[in-house]
Amino acid sequence: MRLYTTYGTNDLKRAIQFYDAVFSVLEQPRLKGWTKDRAGWGTDPASGTGFWVCTPFDGKPANVGNGTMIAFPAGSASQVRRFHAAGLEHGGTDEGKPGIRDYYAPDFYVAYLRDPDGNKLSCFYYHYDLEKDPGG
After folding, report:
1. What CATH number was assigned to the domain covering residues 4-55+70-125?
2. What's the pLDDT tens digit per position in 29-60?
3. What count of other Cβ atoms lies within 10 Å of the Cβ of residue 34?
4. Residue 2 class from Cβ within 10 Å (0-12 exposed, 13-18 middle, 19+ buried)?
5. C-alpha distance across the termini of the chain, in Å
6. pTM assigned to the model
């Protein structure tokens, strides 16, 4: 399956600053060659995967969907923490600090944010081991 995801924004410059910060933690560069009203990140755009922000095509304000969230995989719990911190430092808001949750498996490490437009994001890491990473 080829897949890409798009969130709308009401302030593209602010959104680019936010997503440049969080995606740099996940080593996902901004893709080049896009227009003044959209930006994308990823490492393999030819396969159709990536994440995009844009002003809505219909010209109406972007808004947030209740129950809508995009989750990004991380390579470590430390990377989840850095993703969360970078988001907060660049205009995001906390929706759940990094850590494990009682309602998930004990090796599922996750953090939640909202971007500056209010869209919900998650960054997660499977196979978390508290003994190997007591910083969590």
Report:
1. 3.10.180.10
2. 998 867 788 999 998 767 767 899 999 989 99
3. 12
4. exposed
5. 34
6. 0.89
